[in-house]
Write a structure and sequence with these properties.
The chain has one helix spanning about 40-79, and strands at about 15-20, 25-30. By secondary structure, it is an alpha+beta fold. Keywords: Membrane, Transmembrane, Transmembrane helix.
Length: about 80
């Protein structure tokens, strides 16, 4: 039994298999977009969301660190 996979870009269901990063992935015949099953699509969206949250946390921590270092430097030069 083969899972029903639909192209996220054009909605096509015809595909061919291609090698990407040493893994076989289905590619849409109409627009050459990588096609995933609905379960795998949800998994990828969840991973992307977690990655963006982590990136935001790293960015905020970096900004706080830079601001505190600049403040410390300015404070030490004026004393």
């Amino acid at each position: 039994m083969q899972k029903k996979i639909i192209c996220p870009k054009c909605g096509g269901t015809d595909f061919y298999e291609s090698l990407q990063k040493r893994k076989r992935v289905p590619m849409c015949k109409q627009c050459s977009e990588v096609m995933y099953s609905p379960e795998e699509q949800l998994k990828r969206e969840k991973e992307r969301k977690q990655g963006s949250i982590l990136l935001i946390i790293v960015y905020v921590v970096t900004v706080i660190l830079v601001v505190s270092l600049v403040t410390l430097f300015l404070y030490s030069t004026y004393i």
